[in-house]
Design a protein that fits this description.
Largest sheet of chain B: none
Radius of gyration of chain B: 18 Å
CATH superfamily of the largest domain in chain A: Cytochrome c-like domain
Largest sheet of chain A: 2 strands, antiparallel
Strand content of chain A: under 5%
CATH class of the largest domain in chain A: Mainly Alpha
Number of strands of chain A: 2
CATH architecture of the largest domain in chain A: Orthogonal Bundle
Distance between the termini of chain A: 64 Å
Low-confidence stretches of chain B: 19-23
CATH topology of the largest domain in chain A: Cytochrome Bc1 Complex, Chain D, domain 2
Number of domains of chain B: 1
Strand content of chain B: under 5%
Mean pLDDT of chain A: 88
Structural class of chain A: mainly alpha
Number of helices of chain A: 7
Oligomer: heterodimer
Shape of chain A: elongated
Low-confidence stretches of chain A: none
Mean pLDDT of chain B: 87
Strand order of the largest sheet of chain A: 1-2
Order of helices and strands of chain B: HHHHHH
Number of helices of chain B: 6
Shape of chain B: globular
Structural class of chain B: mainly alpha
Chain lengths: 151, 156
């Protein structure tokens, strides 16, 4: 039985099978990071709703702007605000404290932003801890993202 | 005997090639992709041969307060990077110049506080140049050393 199956497998079958396997692998690899900024918004919305903290009017770019510009207490002295590194305009390139350029935060200027969930999570965690001394709430993240998508 | 002479000659040439004149300031570039990516997002990924293993160990254990910033990473990535940095650290090399004047009971956390770094910069670089907005920080090697990422620091 097995012998007959093996005998009937031709090189062409093997090639087709190989190509399919490669396509699936490529798709899986891409899917691991593929998310749109809209997906990220939905994720924050679900998290905010779960925490009972999703505002009636939805996320707000206006609140996001205020959050972005604010000087926060409770964080590390060298980084009182998101603007410390990102400047006070999402349209402008920023700079790390060691002088490395950070591309603008606005989606219109840097279109590949907010589409890698792992990257987004990593920087929200780090930057919120540096600036506010705690993690940001889903609502704060949603407002921030709404602001960056509006720019 | 002839084979021995040839072998010796070949070895001598190999050594000469590996350490050309002026190779003083050549530090092997970061070869680990994870280290290159994760340590290269806020500053250039510094070569492991700039600090002793105990320093990298301390740095990787205190990432949540990394020179005044939270630079924390998931535990598995932290450990993988720690392993790479400590395995290739300055004190794992033969007579590294970076280790000059670094006492065994000292765990420096900044490359810029090492005697070797100071020796190379203090006289040569004026305070005015450090204040140049294009430099911004002493950790910004690339501002002056254009090939710093490849491990060449002679171009000053």
């Amino acid at each position: 039985m097995i012998k007959t199956i093996l005998a009937s497998v031709t090189w062409r079958d093997a090639a087709v099978f190989g190509a399919m396997a490669m396509a699936i692998a490529a798709f899986a690899a891409q899917n691991a990071r593929a998310a749109s900024p809209q997906d990220m918004l939905k994720k924050f919305q679900a998290e905010a709703q779960k925490a009972g903290d999703f505002p009636a009017g939805g996320f707000s770019a206006k609140r996001g702007k205020a959050f972005f510009l604010a000087r926060h207490a409770g964080g590390k002295p060298a980084t009182p605000s998101c603007t410390t590194c990102h400047t006070d305009s999402p349209l402008k390139a920023g700079k790390t404290r060691t002088g490395k350029v950070i591309q603008p935060m606005a989606i219109s200027r840097t279109p590949d932003r907010y589409s890698d969930p792992e990257k987004v999570a990593k920087w929200f965690r780090r930057n919120c801890k540096s600036v506010l001394g705690r993690e940001c709430t889903p609502r704060e993240k949603g407002d921030f993202l709404a602001y960056m998508l509006s720019q | 005997m002839r084979t021995l002479t040839l072998t010796l000659a070949a070895t001598a040439i190999a050594i000469a090639l590996a350490a050309p004149a002026g190779a003083d300031e050549r530090y092997p570039p970061v070869s680990d992709p994870l280290t290159k990516k994760e340590c290269g997002e806020c500053h250039m990924a510094f070569q492991p041969a700039f600090l002793p293993a105990r320093s990298w160990d301390r740095i990787m254990k205190t990432l949540s307060d990394h020179f005044g910033e939270d630079a924390s990473l998931p535990a598995d990535k932290t450990e993988a990077i720690r392993k790479y940095l400590t395995a290739n650290a300055a004190d794992k090399l033969w007579r590294s110049k970076m280790m000059r004047g670094v006492r065994k009971d000292w765990t420096p956390l900044r490359i810029t506080e090492l005697p070797r770094w100071k020796h190379e910069h203090d006289k040569e670089v004026s305070p005015r140049r450090w204040k140049d907005p294009k430099v911004g920080s002493k950790a910004n090697c690339l501002a002056c050393h254009r090939h710093a990422e490849k491990g060449y620091y002679d171009d000053d």
